[in-house]
TrEMBL record:
Residues 208-255 form the GHMP kinase C-terminal domain. It comes from Mediterranea massiliensis. It is an enzyme of class 2 (transferase). Keywords: ATP-binding, Isoprene biosynthesis, Kinase, Nucleotide-binding, Transferase. The gene is ispE. Its EC number is 2.7.1.148. SUPFAM superfamilies: GHMP Kinase, C-terminal domain, Ribosomal protein S5 domain 2-like. Catalyzes the phosphorylation of the position 2 hydroxy group of 4-diphosphocytidyl-2C-methyl-D-erythritol. It catalyses: 4-CDP-2-C-methyl-D-erythritol + ATP = 4-CDP-2-C-methyl-D-erythritol 2-phosphate + ADP + H(+). One of its GO terms (molecular function) is 4-(cytidine 5'-diphospho)-2-C-methyl-D-erythritol kinase activity. This is 4-diphosphocytidyl-2-C-methyl-D-erythritol kinase. Residues 67-141 form the GHMP kinase N-terminal domain. NCBIfam families: ispE.
Length: 275
């Protein structure tokens, strides 16, 4: 069985407080984007162990047992004693980009195993499993535009469609550690709620919706801030870093002609049509 885990962007991100457990409460809107990995699981034919993982495409740091798709398999295997599987992961979503690629793989693996072995888990149950694998994994279970609070795991749906809008997404050759990015933030509550701001026209977002990580990440990596400036110069209606970086996106109007751009060696540029 094959599935195509997609990335997300954050539309606005307010880090509101540090919690006693070291994590941070935040407010953000997750929006799914059509940038995808490919993930396949097949009944295991031969060989030792209960799983194998074959990877292609972009390389991922760490051993197979630390891959989130394997962690997802092991998590369900604890309760459901699943048959052995061969897993194939083709990585296309850049890591360390704030695009949630690892989280998407984890959630899609749970959904795939649920279908493949007819576990009959509900979306609520899948979300509870996903939340154990990473702060924003659970979003990818329903994979709909979502307002998230808590550590990024308490959800309410938002009435928001960017269908037809175009996304120019840039991943510079810079790795931002999510943990370090959080450690550099001074949390604060925003004056206006993101849920209200997002209902205003996209044209107003430039002056009202911010990603708090930009304040700490741009001074550390000025090249990331320069990309945002350039996207506005090229005509983006709204531009922002996604998550804790390092990717930056520009939203362009449906009728805009996206320019061909190059942000230097090792950087990647994606042109996507939002749904
Ligand atoms: C910044 C976002 O991309 C926004 O969408 C996400 O909140 C990050 O989620 P994620 O990559 O799934 O994060 P995790 O892998 O669970 O956590 C990485 C590290 O970030 C810090 N962390 C993460 C989420 C959170 N709400 N508060 C935190 O302080 C913790 O130090 C944690 O050890
Ligand atoms: N299947 C996977 N795909 C990508 N990374 C994985 C995977 N499994 C484990 N990881 C580990 O997770 C780390 C973060 O990967 P991810 O793709 O979620 O990036 P991110 O940009 O930090 O996303 P986020 O928006 O959640 O901050 C990687 O550096 C890698 O070591």
């Amino acid at each position: 069985m094959i599935t195509f885990p997609n990335a997300k962007i954050n539309l606005g991100l307010n880090i509101t407080e540090k919690r006693p457990d070291g994590y941070h409460n935040l407010e953000t809107i997750f929006y799914p984007i059509p940038l995808e990995d490919a993930l396949e699981a097949c009944p295991r034919k031969e060989g030792p162990g209960s799983y194998s993982l074959s990877q292609s495409g972009l390389s991922i740091e760490g051993d197979a047992e630390n891959n989130l798709v394997v962690k997802a398999y092991k998590l369900l295997d604890e309760t459901y004693h699943l048959p052995p599987v061969d897993i194939y992961l083709h990585k296309h979503i850049p890591s360390g980009a704030g695009l949630g690629g690892g989280s998407a793989d984890a959630a899609f693996m749970l959904k795939l195993l649920n279908r493949m072995y007819r576990l009959n888990l509900t979306d609520d149950q899948l979300e509870a499993y996903a939340a154990r694998l990473g702060a924003d994994c659970a979003f990818f279970v329903r994979n709909q535009p979502t307002y998230a609070e808590g550590i990024g795991n308490i959800f309410s749906p938002v009435e928001l469609s960017l269908a037809g809008w175009q996304l120019l997404l840039v991943k510079p050759n810079i790795f931002v550690s999510t943990r370090d990015a959080f450690a550099r933030i001074r949390p604060r509550h925003p004056e206006r709620n993101l849920r209200d701001l997002i209902n205003q026209p996209v044209e107003s977002w430039k002056d009202s919706i911010i990603n708090d990580f930009e304040e700490s990440v741009f001074p550390q990596f000025p090249a990331i801030g320069d990309i945002k400036t350039e996207l506005y110069r090229l005509g983006a209606v709204y531009a922002s870093m996604s998550g804790s970086g390092s990717s930056v996106y520009g939203l362009f109007a449906p009728d805009a002609v996206l320019p061909d751009v190059d942000f230097g060696t090792g950087s990647q540029v994606f042109k996507l049509n939002l749904k």
